[in-house]
Amino acid sequence: MTRLFAGAAIIAALFFLFAGGAARAQDVTLSARDGAISISGTLVTFDGEFYRVDTRYGVLVVDGQGVICTGPGCPDLDAYVAEFTFSGAPAMGRHLMPDLLQAYAARRGLQVTRDIRDDGEFSLVLSDPVAGRTVARVGFKLTSTAEGFADLLTDQADIVMALRPVNDEEIALGLDAGLGDLSRGRQSRVVALDALVPVVARANPKRRLEIEQLAAMLSGRQSEWPDGQGGIGLHVPASGSGRRTALQADFLTPFGLTLTAKATAHQSGRALSDAVAADPLALGVVGLSDLGNAVRVTLTGRCGMPLPATRSTIKTGDYPFTAPLLLYLPARRLPLFARQFLDYLTTPPAQLVIRRAGFVDQQREEIPLDAQGIRLSNAIAKAGPEVPLEELQRMNAALQGHARLTTTFRFRGGSTELGPQSAGNAVTLARALESGLYDDRELVFIGFSDGEGDWQVNRRIARERAVAVRDAVRNAAITADPARLKLRVAAFGEAMPITCDDTDWGRAINRRVEVWLR
Questions:
Q1: pLDDT of residue 261
Q2: What one-character-per-residue DSSP string does 398-439 give?
Q3: Distance (Å, rounded) from C-alpha 186 to C-alpha 52?
Q4: Is the pLDDT score of 110 beyond 50?
Q5: What is the pLDDT of residues 21-32, one digit of tens each?
């Protein structure tokens, strides 16, 4: 699709290239404001900013600010209403996204009314009370992550609300449907963070589980609680949901197991938590945002290192079962109002709304060195046996006077491509550099590795990853002042593991690039 900018030179060039052919009846004519040239065609869409017109040259996208529209098909600019639809995970569509939209509307002085069709479908209508007109109509379809992608593919929705990354089949179908590559970072947004956690009732004394033991319970291999407590009553998310898919991928697939058919499935996370809280013998896996009256269980690896699901460990990704809440967008221009709303989602006011909704926001935080005693203790106790004392001392000296940012970078399995949360971190950190937030402060990108192989080789690989992330962030910060940026790189390889290094997922968590600030 050709994009046509206002200006007689470009339009004239297109006329020259495609001259000839019989004219046909058209319903709009777009003329450059200087009157030098014009094009005619059938109006496909108008998003409040750009026209899409089917012309004799093909479909052209024209900046509305540079042209004057005449003809029966021209939209009434004063009466234009932006319309777009979200479809997908109810965990996002029931409260989070509507809350964000209402907060955004309040900032623009707009009034919001809700038009309910049924339990699973409603619209928010945003109106300007001063102008006395409707500005936007935003639809919500509360289905599932999979149904959200299906609605996008069939043009029943414009934005997918997803509790898991897009899968290979959906990517292929999206390409066939002309939606672009949905796996590319520019077509997805991380709105908020959640985490999958095992939960029990308060009356259940169990407060720690090894991850392998949890997998055995979820698969049915272990059907009894230890110490003769009784049989385990399993509660899990409903089949087809993003949470159910993530549960299988995170807790069972790494051990070659599948979820037992004997588990009780629940459509909502809060219903699952309530069921667990009412039964001393129950065990469930739920999003942290739906914890309710149930009690979370701390997971550990085989080596005993704990993996607490806290606000900071979820933000840093140090808790391995973090669950980003994602929006997926088609490779087409959304209405201006929709694009402005999506930009709002990264702002500090939006982060407060996200936190109030019970999710973990993405606002960067600083973790002082003296608040990381457990990490430093693990560095001494669990670092690879090859790592000399001098290396640990070098790391300790280098980190003095620094604080760790919650911004952390990890990579997709078997590749150097950043995962969804990390790709979002790169963009938000680059925007922070552009805003001058870290002018005249030193940012250090520090590479860490797993413990497989020679520790000196691991340190070199970790440094290469740190350099790559540093360069990617710096290149994305297009308008930042280079003279005021202090971006350094360091690497300590396997010297500070996050978790046990004896599983594939454990090694993946330990391979990371952290950002430290002074």
A1: 92
A2: HHTT-EEEEEEE-B-TTSSSBPHHHHHHHHHHHHHHHHTTTT
A3: 21
A4: yes
A5: 333 446 999 998
Asked whether the predicted pLDDT for residue 490 surpasses 90, the reply is yes
What residue type is assigned to position 466 of the chain?
A: A
Structural domains of the chain sorted by starting position, each given as residue range(s) with its CATH number in brackets: 2-75 (2.30.30.100), 82-191+326-342 (3.40.190.10), 194-315 (3.40.190.10), 364-517 (3.30.1330.60)
Report residue 266 as tokens.
């629940």
Give one DSSP letter per residue of 139-171, joined into a string: EEEE--HHHHHHHHHTTS-SEEEESS---HHHH
- Percentage of the chain surpassing pLDDT 70? 92
Report which of 196, 201, 198 is spatially closest to residue 276, judged by C-alpha positions: 201
C-alpha–C-alpha distance, residues 62 and 51, integer Å: 5
Whether the Cβ atoms of residue 466 and residue 491 lie closer than 8 Å to each other: yes
Q: Write down the pLDDT at residue 15.
A: 38
Q: Cα(250)–Cα(253) distance, rounded to whole angstroms?
A: 7
Give the model's pLDDT for residue 414: 54
Q: What percent of the chain has pLDDT over 90?
A: 50
User: Taking the CB of residue 106, how many other CB atoms lie within 10 A of it?
Assistant: 12
